[in-house]
Amino acid sequence: MVVPLLSALLGSGAINSLLDYGLYVLLLLVLRRRAVAIPVFVLLEVGQLVMTENPVVGIAHGILAAALLSVAVLRFGLLAAFGLYLALNTLTSIPLPLDTGAAYGSQTIIFLILLSAFFLYALRTAVGPRPLFRFAVDT
Questions:
Q1: Which long-range contacts (CB under 8 A, 24 or more apart) does 37-45 make?
Q2: For 35-93, how does the pLDDT look when each residue is reduced to its tens digit (9 = 90+)?
Q3: Which of 22, 35, 87, 136 is the most buried (most CB within 10 A)?
Q4: Domain containing residue 113
Q5: How many Cα atoms within 13 Å fall on the side-chain side of residue 87?
Q6: Is residue 86 part of a domain?
Q7: How far apart are CA 126 and CA 76, in angstroms?
């Protein structure tokens, strides 16, 4: 039961990250300017992620999620986007009760620590030796 769930999570994370990265490359090819392709990509992500009945909450959630996904895809690359989608899909599809007094509470905490470690490893591998954030003051 665990293996099919994990393979489905890995598959959906890979497909989602590849689709987002492919959409960005397609927008670069069609629009021919990075300064135009990035806002169009973010707007398309916002439109995809607005999924609630309340428009204010839906738009706020869409903007926040699209900003996070856009930073992962555009700044850090495909591997970081895959790690982000894997973490997102895992957290939304597996029930993770945070009751630490229960017998299964420690298993949830261990799983969340392992998931965070995998995400940070994917982010560090995607960035490589470059600094995570570069400020203009460093010049």
A1: 38/70, 38/74, 41/70, 41/73, 41/74, 42/66, 42/67, 42/70, 45/20, 45/69, 45/70
A2: 898 889 888 888 777 777 788 888 888 888 888 888 888 887 887 788 788 878 877 77
A3: 87
A4: 2-131
A5: 21
A6: yes
A7: 6
Residue 139 belongs to some domain of the structure: no
Separation CA 55–CA 53 (nearest Å): 6
Contact 77, 68 (CB under 8 A): no
Residue pointed to by tokens 């999570």: 9
Per DSSP, 100 falls in state: T
Buried b or exposed e, range 72-92, using 16+ CB within 10 angstroms: bbbebbbbbbbbbbbbbbbee
Rounded to whole angstroms, the Cα distance separating 73 from 38 reads 11
Instruction: State the Rg of the chain over Cα.
Output: 17
Percentage helix, strand, coil for the chain under 3-state DSSP, each rounded to 5: 80, 0, 20
How many residues are there in the chain? 139
pTM of the model: 0.67
